[in-house]
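Query structure, 134 tokens:
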């Protein structure tokens, strides 16, 4: 059962990418596995490419469907690296999964993304999962 969902407010796509990079760096430095869930393989490939190029002064070991890495990107319902923390970049809330932390974006970059964020927030709230800001 999920212990807590953390909502991270962003207003632009570049701000979202910066927060993704910060989360990945923090989890890697603390040796905590992180799963990044996407809706499409194209989004997974975009993030894979982004993390190969960033940070510019280092490298974050990661991969798509990677089982041996601290950071794994997937569009499937699996947890290939057995992470306890998940960054959800899908349009649906993550329910009935065994993550101690789920990170969600409170995305203010468009009206549609605001509606999706609000839907996820309300779903977690109705499911009595504790919610916090990050």
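Result returned for the query:
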């Amino acid at each position: 059962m999920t212990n807590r969902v953390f909502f991270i407010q962003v207003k632009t796509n570049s701000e979202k990418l910066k927060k993704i990079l910060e989360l990945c760096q923090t989890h890697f430095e603390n040796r905590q596995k992180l799963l990044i869930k996407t809706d499409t393989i194209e989004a997974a490939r975009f993030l894979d490419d982004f993390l190969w190029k960033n940070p510019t002064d280092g490298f974050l070991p990661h991969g798509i469907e990677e089982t041996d890495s601290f950071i794994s990107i997937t569009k499937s319902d699996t947890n290939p690296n057995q992470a306890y923390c998940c960054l959800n970049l899908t349009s649906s809330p993550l329910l009935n999964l065994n993550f101690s932390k789920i990170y969600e974006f409170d995305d203010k970059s468009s009206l549609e993304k605001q509606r999706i964020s609000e839907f996820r927030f309300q779903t977690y709230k109705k499911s009595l999962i504790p919610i916090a800001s990050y």
